[in-house]
Amino acid sequence: MEAYNFTDIEQRWKKHWKDRRVFSCDLAKTAKKYYTLVMFPYPSGDFLHAGHGRNYIIGDAVFRYFRALGHNVLNPMGFDAFGLPAENTAIHKGIHPEDWTLKNIERMKGQFYDWGMGYDWDKEVVSCLPDYYRWTQWIFLKLYEKGLAYRKKAYVNWCPSCLTVLANEQVIEGHCERCDSEVIQKELEQWFLKITAYAERLLADIARLGNWPERVKTMQKNWIGQSEGAAVNFQVESRSEIITVFTTRPDTLFGATYMVLAPEHPMVPELVKGTPKEAEVRTFVEDVKKQSALDRTGENAEKLGLDTGAKAVNPVNGKAIPIYIANYVLMDYGTGAIMAVPAHDTRDFDFAQKYKIHIVQVIDPDDEVKRAWKASGHVFDPQEEAYTDDGKLINSGFLDGLKVEVAKTKMTEWLTEKKLGKGAVTYRLRDWLISRQRYWGAPIPMIHCGKCGWVPVPEKDLPVKLPHDVEFKPTGESPLKAVPSFVRAACPKCGGEARRETDTMDTFVDSSWYFLRYVSAKDSKQAFDPQTANQWLPVDQYIGGVEHAILHLLYSRFITKVLKDLGLISFDEPFRRLFTQGMITKGGVKMSKSKGNSVQPDELIQKYGSDTFRLYTLFIGPPERDAEWDDRAVEGAFRFLNRVWRLFQELLERPDFNAGGAPQAATERDKEVRRKTHQTIQKVTQDMDGGFKFNTAISAMMELINLLYDYKADPAARTPILREAVESLVKLLGPFTPHVASEIWSRLGKGELLDAGWPKHDPALMRSEVVEIAVQVNGKVRTRVSVPVGLEETAIRELARTDERVSKAVTGEIVKLVWVKDKLANFIVKGG
Fold first, then answer.
1. pTM score, whole prediction
2. 3-class DSSP state of 341
3. CA end-to-end span of the chain, whole Å?
């Protein structure tokens, strides 16, 4: 039979949904509310490929499922429209970033329409429009008022290709996450958000994220990176300055034989000023600045150091130890200074060996370790290798004989008592660097006055708008600096001449709060209405890629906690549940336009229809895992839809199909079909509730279709049972293939499928009515079998012929079958 083309059906339903605003959510109705949200896209490219589609199709299936369950579902969509990718692409194509971005947004909205996405477009947000970034700027001002936004000179990650600063989270193994260029260090005045003030809460509250993937929670824990130890004060020899180091191993303090400062440490110039080492140190520092973070700290990176000639006094034994500067110590981690214990740290040992620095062993290996060494013939020499495992303290005065963990506590107590240090907790997390020397971002709402310093733009003057007429030049400075009408400003405090900040904000600031704006998308008086936000948030179900585990998700958690502390909202976590989908690959690599392996959904939809595209995307594999795209397998999804359609058409031709009647089962075959129908309802429901197992849900529906085709061919098939099965199947298909399902539902004489409810399984119908029968041969029990109630004799005789267990027991010629108390079948067998 010729395949059916669903294009006309799909277009009709898309228009129906749009014209009737079927997906619009009334936020005033909160009794059974549900907020489902898909991470909004970057419109830096001119189309979404099939790999992108997985995220949005999963989200739409979730929306339609909860709508069918009877929830008032908010399912909005917007665009994360600022950022480097859009600006770089626009410049490359010779078009203004705003024009390019807005054009792409319209193209993507058209694609969402083609895919049948059920978005509430009344609540659309676009982060590059002034009515949105006005409130991004307002949030910045609130952070500034609270002391959480500040400006300082710092060494920052600089991408020489993108010509802008990158946050630590945007540097992947020493390279720019956007263009893969090697990142270098550059000293600039930058704006930061003090996320470190929330490090402890961000870490502790991960325990409350029970419905987040463990992988994401682990990634956040590791990025925040809590370390417990001690802050130790070393006095510079013959000087008054104190250098504080943080160490997780205060127990090894007696073994500290040198100290290392980051080349950027502010004390370095003072230590060598006027000494013979001054020029050499200055040259070394400049050379290190040219190295990327990966060059300095990578596993195979060469460790370069220089003795400054200065010494520090070890507080526990009064010994003077040399102060080095080295490339492997970074200023933005810890205090920018470390105490080095080469006997018990591999990195310190390698450095000490290279620069011939004294090594003192302070931990004696456990007896078990010594026995293992002896058995293997290993001879330990602390001058030849570092020992990094557990043991007891030696050469450590009052710590001698103590186990490591006990010694840590004892030393910390001693330092505290002597006022030479104290217990401390540090975090790997650094403050969020948000300054970008680019045009396409929200302007930072600050003004610099020669008299008053940095002054915030008054709220009444927001938004600080981006000028459209800007010349883009590869200078490494913001193009806004070359726009006098933008730069010139009056100081809000004294009214004098001042200049506007020309850096723009990292686009992750825009996306750190957008989920709040959806509930007040058109509100011109406030970023969001607190009452509505408190009613609808946190987001009930958030869906997006795991690549955002650290950046977007961590920043969103931070901003939410700040807004809670400001009294603007009553919750401090933005997302109740998180689902991270795997990526789509083709040819074994991530689908990407730049790699030339992207699949254009428009072509698929033209050939097969959008429901086929949706169905295959959901069927491709477990949604949380990566999956390989197979063009040929798309045809299989299309064939399945055609089977559903043909079954319905053939059943519709039955004169009694619309006659009604209860689905009563008269035969075991009838019962089997009803049982399978209700088992399928249960299976699909469980798969949707238990982690969005779309692929196995679709498999269950395919099995039901196969059974219905077989049953339909039986002249004794009962139409009410077929109709029950079809109606249930159509409802189940609604989230997956909404156009075809809606069409069938309509032709069944029903209303809007989206509001038709979700089918419920009947546990009583799912039980297989069977009885266990003992099988005897000439009075001796040989096996036991389960057979349908009411068909015992027929089933037993058939099993005697076909079932291996019974046929092996019943050998010889059957004379007769004698039933004993209905639960025992005795075959009288000649020669058995």
1. 0.87
2. coil
3. 53
